[in-house]
Amino acid sequence: MYFQLLGETQFWRGGQEVRIGPQQRRLLLAVLLLNANESVHRERIFQLLWGDPLPRSATGSLQAHVSRLRAALGLDRGHAASCGVALRTVGAGYLITVPGEHVDAHRFEAMVSRAQSSDAAEALALYGQALDLWRGPPLSDITNERARMELCLPLEERRLDVLTDQIDLRIELGAWSGLIAELTALSSRFPGRPRFAAQLMILLYRGGRTADALEVFRRVRELMDREFGLDPPGRLSWLETAILRNDPVLQEDRFVIGGRYWGTAVDQDGCRPMQGADKNFASRRT
């Protein structure tokens, strides 16, 4: 038995996909699985499935969805129970009990947690396995805008955080194959995440392409001004200055370990944090 949320919402049993039913029922399953082993109050479910104004039939419809979801999961025949899966009413809410390894979103987090306590080579492999669980945008079959904002956006942000950490490790370990092209696309697609631009600048500089690295900064500065009315983060500006002066710290492995280039700006010997390093997304103009 396996549940997939990192892409379309799907349920598999015995190697076969089992149809859950209409979109609201799939969304109900997703809400319960993302909060697996915790009770979800029915008011929270009402808001995600129907929003305001709440239809008069919401309570009866929710009860019907839960009943049919139990049937789809095989709880009425004992299939799910044999795998440690249960769906029950708890007070004014519902709780699904499921082993974490049976839900791709929870497997993803477990692999990331293991990676964070592993050496660099093993961590890189674990990050790769975790990211491979993603088959597309999370809950891609759900069109409910509120649900997408509240459920999907945090999942996608988490994926990008992990991808950023994985890229740091690839730079540290010299696994650069295809990375410049990948970062070029990422920095263009996600201008609100200038750390991708920082990683690209470091790679280009290390590859002897100083002019291209500085061009990345120029494009980011123009884009952030146009899209957000902001200046680039202080750490990105510091990186531009370090490239201009050919700072030797940019070539050191320790400069990228754990995202050090982004966690705090560093002085020219790469050892002491700069006072007043900007920790915000970007520098707001005064």
Automatic annotation (TrEMBL):
GO BP term, pick one: regulation of DNA-templated transcription
Alphabetical list of InterPro entries matching this protein: AfsR-DnrI-RedD_regulator (IPR051677), BTAD (IPR005158), OmpR/PhoB-type_DNA-bd (IPR001867), Sig_transdc_resp-reg_C-effctor (IPR016032), TPR-like_helical_dom_sf (IPR011990), WH-like_DNA-bd_sf (IPR036388)
Protein name: DNA-binding transcriptional activator of the SARP family
CDD domains, A to Z: BTAD (cd15831)
Keywords: DNA-binding, Transcription, Transcription regulation
SMART domains documented for this protein: BTAD, Trans_reg_C
Any one GO molecular-function label of the UniProt entry: DNA binding
Annotation: DNA-binding region: 1-98
DNA-binding keyword on record: yes
Family: Belongs to the AfsR/DnrI/RedD regulatory family.
Ranges for domain OmpR/PhoB-type: 1-98
